[in-house]
Amino acid sequence: MNGFFELFHSEWFAPLIEVGSSYAAEIDGLIALVLVVVGFWFLAAQYMFFRFILKYRARPGRRADYISGKEKHLKRWITIPHLCVLAFDVLIVVVSFRVWIDIKMTLPENPDGVIRVIGQQWAWTFQHPGDDGELDTLDDIFTVDELHVQNDQLYHFILESTDVLHSFSVPVWRIKQDAIPGRSITGWFRPTKTGEFDVQCAEICGFGHGVMAARVWVEDADAHASWIAANTPLAAAPSSSPAPGVQ
């Protein structure tokens, strides 16, 4: 069974859009499966539709045939395809559930980093851990519309919204997760490709929705360490002497 599911880990759409996360190929495989199954039955239905139109059409000296669909020898043209479509529906459900469980319902433990993503009209605020590697400490790095992560590292993200419904979308990672006011949603990703990529809001969130775009930089270990060191507030601040009278 595992060998069967490996068929859906191929980078089917890599020529159209880059594959940049550990589970992007799984989502591409699921989309390809739906495309092939639905496309096959669409073409088969259209072929039979036009074939029957031509076969039973009116001709000079002959009226068009009337078929009620109740004839036993004709019912198989409905029953057999119907059962086949149901079988393929089950296949799609099984594969989609497996992908959904892996990505949405399973949170890998021991992440290499945790970031907070905050959506608001109309920008993304990213809270990165600073030099200490911990979130919600004094050296956290806050950026607007600019996310920095290290390649091939496991990240948890905490997604929040300060006002209306937004949707955090990174096409190269195949991430699209709604940000809901009043809720804190945790997800994960593992980048697999260095470079600069788009971050979008995929939910209409008001007048400025169309300009709510950001960028993510996926860096190698040295470049990311340099960025952290250069932007960590406490690392850049000079050490201060203790106040008079304080030991």
What's the gist of this structure?
The chain is of the alpha+beta class and 247 residues long.
Structural commentary:
The protein is α+β, with helices and mostly antiparallel strands. The chain has two domains: 2-105, no CATH class; 113-236, Sandwich (Immunoglobulin-like). It contains five helices and ten strands. It has helices at 2-5, 24-55, 72-105, 221-231, 233-236, and strands at residues 113-120, 123-128, 141-144, 146-150, 155-161, 166-170, 175-179, 185-189, 195-201, 214-219. The strands form two sheets. It has a five-stranded mixed beta sheet with strand order 3-2-1-5-8, with no helix packed on it. Strands 4-10-9-6-7 form a five-stranded mixed beta sheet. Helix 2 runs antiparallel to helix 3 (72-105). The longest helix is centred in the middle third of the chain and has 34 residues, at 72-105. It is elongated and about 90 Å long. The N and C termini lie far apart (67 Å). Residues 235-247 have low confidence and may be disordered.
